[in-house]
Amino acid sequence: MALRLFSREQKPASAPEEKASATGRVVAFATGSGRAVWSARDSNSLTRGGFVGNPVGFRSVKLIAEAAAAVPLVCEDTDRRYESHPVIDLLRRPNAGQGRAELFESLFGQLLLSGNAYVEAVGITGEGLPEEMHILRSDRMSIVPGADGWPVAFEYAVGGRKHRFDMTGRPDPICHIKSFHPQDDHYGLSPMQAAAVAMDVHNSASAWSKALLDNAARPSGAIVYKGVDGQGVLSPEQYDRLVGEIEMNHQGARNAGRPMLLEGGLDWKPMGFSPSDMEFHETKISAAREIAQAFGVPPMLLGIPGDATYANYAEAHRAFYRLTVLPLATRVSAAVAWWLSEHLGAEIALRPDPDRIPALAAERDQQWARISAATFLSDAEKRTLLGLPPLSDG
């Protein structure tokens, strides 16, 4: 009987039946190890990772928003340019807590971070301009489309409470300014979304550098154990003690350069930087350059090394205003002017005045000299070419 128990003819007991979903292998393959993990692409996550937690994204947004908010604006209609106007007075002090620069900086910042900006008119009386203007957070605003696809309302949600802005009447209480989005009819595309991959790479590189600094600014080495009898395996107690000694006495900035005392057959084998480690810094710089390019900021203005697109800083600064700041300020000021014209009951235009931008002074001098030397043009034609209003009679 005992021999039969250990004979080859006996069949082993069957393993317990395991049940699993038929889609388990597919899910495991789709989320298997070795795949890149990207951050979320919603507005809040992009703002935290790309603006609050990334110096390149933060500086790019601040540089554009501050420069565009400081651009001088011209208020005019089809007949004349105004030095004093109710629209100018409203923009000078739009609300009790903000001036013109603060309001427009917040507006441009929301537009760059989320692709959408919302301006609220406060104190609408039905006649004349609103008493105040406020910028609403884009992440709290949602559009309610109507049957024809156009927004019939905006909902502003804070802490479970919602306020509804009716957009079926005139004038509109909300001015919605959005960037171009090829796949969305109601919301704009943020540069932050286009630079999301580069921001993940840059943030991961910064975290890697921080971890490297915490480990005495060099990659970890290897501790080799050789027992007296040639056995190279530590007991659990010895292993735990060794790990504790390293974490307590040889890691972190305060222990940098501290000598290590090895005993009992332990030997330290340092490891140098591999070629991939040496290229990690270049990867971070390349990611920073991609972030700056997504926002339209010349990398030279952010101090990113290795960029030779422009010959000098002045040329990069001039290109920054021509290619990024002025187009953005022109589009936003035109949208705000059209919205305020509905409240005012008369069409008014707001546009940037490049003649008062110091970065474009060299271009302005060349243009004025070229037009002034044109003897075949009259004074009225020269003023028109320079963007100046016509002279009044006398």
Description:
Residues 1-20 are annotated as: Disordered. This is Phage portal protein. InterPro entries: Phage/GTA_portal, Portal_HK97. A three-stranded antiparallel β-sheet has the order 2-1-11. A three-stranded antiparallel β-sheet has the order 4-3-8. A three-stranded antiparallel β-sheet has the order 5-6-7, with no helix packed on it. With 394 residues, it is of the alpha+beta class. α4 (55-69) crosses α6 (100-114), α4 packs parallel to α11 and α4 crosses α12. The N and C termini lie far apart (130 Å). It has helices at 2-5, 24-30, 43-52, 55-69, 86-92, 100-114, 191-194, 196-214, 236-249, 275-278, 280-295, 313-344, 361-372, 379-385, and strands at 73-76, 81-82, 116-122, 132-136, 141-145, 151-158, 161-166, 174-178, 222-225, 266-269, 349-352. β5 (141-145) and β6 (151-158) form a beta hairpin. It folds into three domains: 36-216 and 273-356, no CATH class; 222-250 and 260-269; 364-394, no CATH class. The protein is built from 14 helices and eleven strands. Helices cover 42% and strands 14% of the residues.
